[in-house]
From TrEMBL:
<dbReference type="InterPro" id="IPR022643">
    <property type="entry name" value="De-COase2_C"/>
</dbReference>
<dbReference type="GO" id="GO:0030170">
    <property type="term" value="F:pyridoxal phosphate binding"/>
</dbReference>
<dbReference type="InterPro" id="IPR022653">
    <property type="entry name" value="De-COase2_pyr-phos_BS"/>
</dbReference>
<comment type="subunit">
    <text>Homodimer.</text>
</comment>
<comment type="function">
    <text>Specifically catalyzes the decarboxylation of meso-diaminopimelate (meso-DAP) to L-lysine.</text>
</comment>
<feature type="binding site">
    <location>
        <position position="307"/>
    </location>
    <ligand>
        <name>substrate</name>
    </ligand>
</feature>
<dbReference type="InterPro" id="IPR022644">
    <property type="entry name" value="De-COase2_N"/>
</dbReference>
<keyword id="KW-0457">Lysine biosynthesis</keyword>
<comment type="pathway">
    <text>Amino-acid biosynthesis; L-lysine biosynthesis via DAP pathway; L-lysine from DL-2,6-diaminopimelate: step 1/1.</text>
</comment>
<dbReference type="InterPro" id="IPR029066">
    <property type="entry name" value="PLP-binding_barrel"/>
</dbReference>
<feature type="binding site">
    <location>
        <position position="335"/>
    </location>
    <ligand>
        <name>substrate</name>
    </ligand>
</feature>
<feature type="active site" description="Proton donor">
    <location>
        <position position="334"/>
    </location>
</feature>
<comment type="similarity">
    <text>Belongs to the Orn/Lys/Arg decarboxylase class-II family. LysA subfamily.</text>
</comment>
<dbReference type="InterPro" id="IPR009006">
    <property type="entry name" value="Ala_racemase/Decarboxylase_C"/>
</dbReference>
<keyword id="KW-0210">Decarboxylase</keyword>
<feature type="modified residue" description="N6-(pyridoxal phosphate)lysine">
    <location>
        <position position="53"/>
    </location>
</feature>
<feature type="binding site">
    <location>
        <position position="223"/>
    </location>
    <ligand>
        <name>pyridoxal 5'-phosphate</name>
    </ligand>
</feature>
């Protein structure tokens, strides 16, 4: 997993040319993941709706579009960025949670298909549009799945979706306003690798679906787990795809019609394409442990501090593994700010090839929920982003200046 280069360009060269902290993405990796996903659902009428929240850089969105991947968005801003990237509204699904109805009206006005997850919103949708606009309904299947409690979205206490136990209420609203429900949707959570969980969630949705007579689409969400280290198995996509495809085929047969299948992966498509590069400011030899302090922090990559997420870390400046040491890798933010967590969500030390000040430290799996969750905490600039494609690296988001931070302030 210690990839010292992307498409033959050494990470240290990228750090030198574009500066640090830096997000770098490998376009080939994204294309490869799209192909794997398609192969996993071979023979099924599949549309991939990329969960853009994972990475909304315009160039990444364009790459998705060029490869026939549609978009799933959660805010008017993501929708707007999608349109700027060249998407048609009709290729975009708006799957919001708890937003003001005006955002749904906005999405409809842009031609996006909305995915409704609340009875009162469904009713308002009916009152506003009657049968004139298509929609999907997001169901909460009461299934447990996901890497940690913050990213589980289908269990009984989750705020997402309309409970499968409220089918009668849904049907009554749909009938009252003659709402054009073209699809049903569910998303179980993130970081799921177990085929059984996907199967269980899908079957809950299928059981629910027979009472909806005009369906064209079943949307089974995203959440496919990616590998986070050489020892960590990601999802076996081909196996899971087959399980889901078989269940879907059986459903279509019983339903009496061929439907289209949508999936909405974020991480699966972009996580592994990204590497985050930072420079070692200090090596701090303390009596208890040795810290590697890098020129970044939870302001740039919050996943470790927010979820206890594991990111594979390596010293991109030193490939000599004969001298390794245990280091706690930390950031410069003014509170506990650790990048090195173990698989149980505890801060830990990592065995890295000997680190000296100035070395470039790389964190893997930085393509999803890295930059999009970055902030200006401590008034630091956001990192720059670089895309490597066709063996060439180019800036796809320039580094900020103080002007960017001050722009809207008085
Ligand atoms: N569809 C819906 C409705 C979602 O809410 C999400 C993610 C996805 C699809 C894509 O899930 P994915 O394939 O990326 O697992 N920030 C967290 C992940 C939060 C996911 C939120 N919803 C993290 O960094 O682990």
């Amino acid at each position: 997993m210690a990839y010292y280069s992307i498409q033959n360009i050494p990470l240290t060269d990228l750090a030198k040319e574009f500066g640090t902290p830096l997000y770098v993405y490998d376009a080939d990796k994204i294309r490869e993941k799209i192909s794997v996903l398609r192969a996993a659902f071979e023979g099924i009428d599949l549309t991939i709706k990329y969960a853009a929240k994972a990475n909304t850089n315009l160039s990444i969105l364009r790459l998705m579009r060029e490869n026939g991947v549609d978009m799933d968005v959660v805010s008017p801003q993501e929708l707007e960025i999608g349109l700027i990237a060249g998407y048609e509204g009709s290729n975009i699904t708006f799957t919001p949670s708890g937003v003001h109805f005006s955002e749904i009206e906005y999405a409809v006005s842009k031609g996006a298909i909305v995915n409704l997850d609340n009875l009162s919103v469904l009713e308002k949708f009916g009152q506003t549009y009657g049968s004139s606009q298509p929609c999907l309904i997001r169901i909460k299947p009461h299934v447990f799945g996901g890497g940690n409690e913050k990213i589980m979205t289908a269990h009984p206490e989750s705020k997402f979706g309309i409970s499968i136990h409220q089918k009668a209420e849904i049907l009554s609203i749909v009938e009252q306003y003659n709402i054009n429900v073209i699809g049903l949707h569910q998303h179980t959570g993130s970081d799921i690798k177990d085929g059984k969980t996907f199967e269980q969630a899908a079957s809950a949705l299928f059981d629910f679906a027979y009472d909806f007579k005009d369906l064209q689409i079943i949307d089974l969400g995203g959440g496919f787990k990616v590998p986070y280290s050489p020892e960590d198995p990601g999802v076996n996509m081909l196996e899971v795809g087959q399980i889901m495809s078989n269940a879907f085929r059986a459903f279509c047969q019983k339903y009496g019609r061929e439907l289209r299948l949508w999936v909405e992966p974020g991480k699966f498509l972009v996580s592994e394409s990204g590497t985050f590069l930072a420079e070692t400011n200090v090596v701090k030899r303390d009596p208890v442990k040795t810290f590697v302090g890098i020129n970044s922090g939870l302001n740039h990559l919050i996943r470790p501090m927010m979820y206890g997420s594991y990111h594979y870390i390596f010293n991109a400046s030193n490939q000599d593994s004969s001298k390794q040491e245990d280091y706690r890798v930390t950031g410069y933010i003014c509170e506990t700010d650790t990048f090195s967590f173990d698989f149980n969500g505890k801060q830990n030390e990592r065995l890295l090839n000997k680190v000296k000040e100035g070395d470039i430290i790389a964190l893997a799996n930085a393509g999803a929920y890295g930059f999009t969750m970055a902030s200006h905490y401590n008034s630091r600039f956001l990192p720059a982003e670089v895309l490597v494609d066709g063996g060439k690296a180019r800036v796809i988001r320039r580094r900020e200046t103080l002007e960017d931070i001050l722009r809207n302030q008085e």
